[in-house]
Amino acid sequence: MKTITQFVQQGISSPSELQEALQTAMRLEFSTLPPYLCAEWSIGDSDPDNVGEMIHEIVLQEMFHFALAGNMLAAIGGTFKIADPQFLASYPTNILPGDIHQDLPVDLRPLSKAQLQVFMQIETPEFPPVPVAAVRAPGSATIGEFYTALRKAFENLNPSIDQNAHFVARGAEVFQIKSVTDAQNAIERIKSEGEGTSGEPDQPANPNQLAHFYVFKEIFIGNILIFDPKSAKLIPVPGKSIRLPSVFPFGPSTATPNPSIAFNRLLSQLLTDLEACWTQGASLPAAISDMTKLGEEGRRLINGGIRPEFGWVVSA
Description:
Blueprint: H1 4-10, H2 15-31, H3 33-41, H4 51-75, E1 93-96, E2 100-106, H5 113-123, H6 143-157, H7 180-193, H8 212-221, E3 223-228, E4 233-241, H9 261-279, H10 284-303
Antiparallel strand pairs: 1-2, 3-4
C-alpha cells in the first residue's frame, strides 16, 4: 500500500489507487478518535469553560470526515476494510496511518497541556508526513496535499459514480456522493474543518471557522482567539480565558481478566456495524447506539483509572 507521500509525489493514477487512498483516509481520520475521546472522557465534573464540548465537536467532525471518505469509497465501488483488526492503530505510536511521522508519540492519556501539544502536532496545517523507512525529503507531502491529490484524482480519473451505492447521511455535514463534484466538495469540507487546511499555524485559511489545530491551540494557551486583519494572525481576546477542567487520571491495566474486554467488544461491533452501513445498507442508528454504549463504557473505565485499549475482539 502506498504512503501518503507516495500518493502525492507519484499521483493517483487508477481507480484502484483512488480506492486505496480513500481507505487510507478513513484509517487516518479514525486514528485520531481514540486519543481525542480519551481526553474528552477524562474530564471530571468541574469544566467551567466547556472544554469537553469543544473537544466533542472535534470528535464529531472527525467522524463526519471518516463518513465522507466512506461515502466516496462506496460511490466508486471500493472494498471496505473497517471491521478488521488491521484498521485500528496501536498506541502509543509515532506513525499515523499513511506513514505520517509524529515527533511526539500519540498516546491515550488524560487531557493535559502535554496532550494538547500532541493534538496540535496531529492537526498542524502544514506538517510533513513521511514513509516509515525513508528519510524525510525536501518537498515531503502534507495531509493537505494528500487531500488535494484525492481531489485531482477525482477530476482526472472521472470515476464512474454509483448512484445506488449505500451511504450514510447526517444533515449537511455528511451527504451522498452523487457526482465527482460532490466528492470534491466533500474533500474541501474535510480540508477546511480538519488537519488538511493550508496556511501557517497562526494564519488560518478560514478565520471565520477555525479548524481543529486552532481550537486545540485556544485550549492550550487558555484563551479564545480571534483573527486580527492587521497582522493577519490569530490573537487572544482579552477577558475570554479558557480554564482547563479537572480530569480523572488513568493508565494501562494489567488486571485479569482484561477490564477492557467489554469496551473492545463494543468497539469491534461499532466497526462491524459501520462497515455494514456501506456494504449492506444497514441502519445507521445501530452504529450510533454502539457509539453511545462505547462512550458510556469508556467513561466507566477512565473513572476507574483504567485506560481503554481500543483493541479488536474477534468474537464481537
